[in-house]
Every structure is written in C-alpha cells, then in structure tokens.
Amino acid sequence: MKALFEYxxxxxxxxxxxxxxxxxxxxxxxxxxxxxxxxxxxxxxxFCTATFLFHSTLLHTMAINAMISIxxxxxxxxxxxVTVTRLRPxxxxxxxxxxxxxxxxxxxxxxxxxxxFSLAVIIALYFPIFGFIxxxxxxxxxxxxxxxxxxxxxxxxxxxxxxxxxSLLTYKFF
Length: 174
Known about the structure:
Helix 3 (41-53) runs antiparallel to helix 4 (57-84), helix 6 runs antiparallel to helix 7 and helix 6 (111-126) packs parallel to helix 8 (153-173). Helix content is 75%, strand content 0%. It has one domain. By secondary structure, it is an all-alpha fold. This is Phosphatase PAP2 family protein.
C-alpha cells in the first residue's frame, strides 16, 4: 500500500510540474489567476443571487439547488481539509511558479474546483446545452489551481468528484 501511495504522489508531483512549469507562458500567466476566481465564493454567491432574481421558476429552483450543492460540497471539502491537512505544493516543492493569493495552508481537496463543479454540473443538469460551456470552464478552474501552484492534481480530481456528486444528489433529492 505504501508503494501505491508513493507512486501516486510521484505522479501527482510530475503532473503538477508539467502544468506549473512546462505550460508557463505570458497568456496563461494572465488568464489563469483570473480563471481561478470562477470557483470563488463571491463569484458563486453573485451568480446564484442574480439567477434567483430572474422571473422564472426553473431559474429559481436551479439557483436554490446550486446554493444547496455548493454548501454541501464546501462543507465536505472543509472537513477533509482539516482532517487530511495536506500542505500546499508551493510550501513543500521548490521552484514552482506561484501566484500569491489569499489562501490557507492546506490543499486537499481544492475548494475552488469543488465549488466550480458544484455550480457547473447543476447548470448542466437544468440546462444541458450550457454544460458544454460550464463543465470546461470548471475544468479550467481546476487546472488554474495547479498552474498557479496552490494545488496538486489529486486535490483537483477529488474536488471534481465532490462537486459533481453533490450536484447530482441535490438535483435528484431536492
């Protein structure tokens, strides 16, 4: 089992280095820090509130379910963060290209990715045609978190799983 964890950890760091160092370019240096904020609480709060204000029962329902999904997934993510206490990659790995943003010191799972997928999947469930936009945008949020050096790929993968699962469960049961 220890060998499996070491293998996954090595792959995690290798993929992180590829995205963080090898993809480095001026365009991504500008767009990725902005992209990351699509998974932030202020963005999701403003989006859900604005959507709720439209005069449409379907949009009201979607906004409420998005808020429920985001709340559930964020709660699960916070519990995992304080339980696992995995330090962020820029703290442990030298020579990463990092962008200083206001964050705590723990990385697992990616809260921005979790939130982005909670919102993206709910939108896609209510309006499937928009899934072609929202899901890739949410994936870009996850990749941006690796690019700016604040998350490992496995943090992002688990964030995708939590956000997607919470949205599917919220859609089905609420």
